[in-house]
Records
---
Amino acid sequence: VPVERWPLWDEPLGLPEELLLGLGLWREGAPAIPERFPPVDPSLALTGATLLARAGETRRSILLAEAIRLRTPERLPLALQAAAFRALLYPLPYRDALLAEARRRRLDPHLLAAVVREESRFDPRALSGAAARGLMQLALPTARRVAAQTELRRVGPEDLYRPEVSLALGAAYLAELLREMSGSEHLAVAAYNAGPPQARLWRSYCTSDDPAEYLTKVGFRETRTYLRRVLAAREQYERLYALAR
């Protein structure tokens, strides 16, 4: 939507965040964007999501793009929607660091990006209720165990908010899970969410290696949703970016 048609100018700006938006300070005014660029007007919301992405507010941009996606007809596959919109849904910040860690750990970079997106929406300051921190939402005990096996050696809680540290440790942990699960991506992703013992238990109920069958055996709703989203995101990242391995 052209600047002159933004509803931002239709009434007085009262809140500090709105005043900051009026000054073009998108990062500082980011909390007001969903209100002033609402999903009820998809074109306007798409503009808001784009502004957020350009300002580095990736998590907020994804959330607004997802709200737009919920308003599109179910019969319209995501693959047929504009690439620019799909890139807002599946962005790739920290691209160089992510690719470097994927190559170092011999990971599929599309899978690594999908895990980061689902874990934190690329918010380096993300903190869960279980005290998992950073881009890859690692708990401190897991992070310290993995760090002891890498060149990082020691890490503290604040280190996990550093994108390069979180990506390095998360990639190492995901590679470890893939080795433990004999290279099975869906098992490794389930293990990242629910832990290796639980992932193996669900595998023992299966009669084949089909990911679809495995999904029916996953007993935690959270993990089923997580697994679906990560595998779907992995496909989208491969279509959008075709990253070299």
---
Amino acid sequence: MRPAQEPESWPVTYITTGGAGAGLYDVVSNQFLAEAKSLNHFIQVKISGDSLSLSARKMDDSLFDILKIVKHNGKLDKQYLAKVEPQEQLNLVNMFARALTFSISALPVDSRPLKKNIHLESDFNKE
């Protein structure tokens, strides 16, 4: 992510992790998530020279996601830069997600099922 009006600024990669033993939450995918899983896991980070590698691993040590960021002569790799999205788009998605979450959680919940009888009549066979 980086601001649309600052195309030469350094992008920021957001990594959210936290499935190391606490309760898990449902994950909703969107265009800004490279990978989204609701499972217990851990991450392994390796930094060497101009390269950063992050591995996301299940508790049995099997790999389920990897991120690699490489610089060449102090500049970010072109493949990485091709994936950069405008920060404003993510902000908009998050704003609507928060609003919907708040709205849904504020709705009154009734434990009784609602039954409605609907009768449809057709005028096709009438003259």
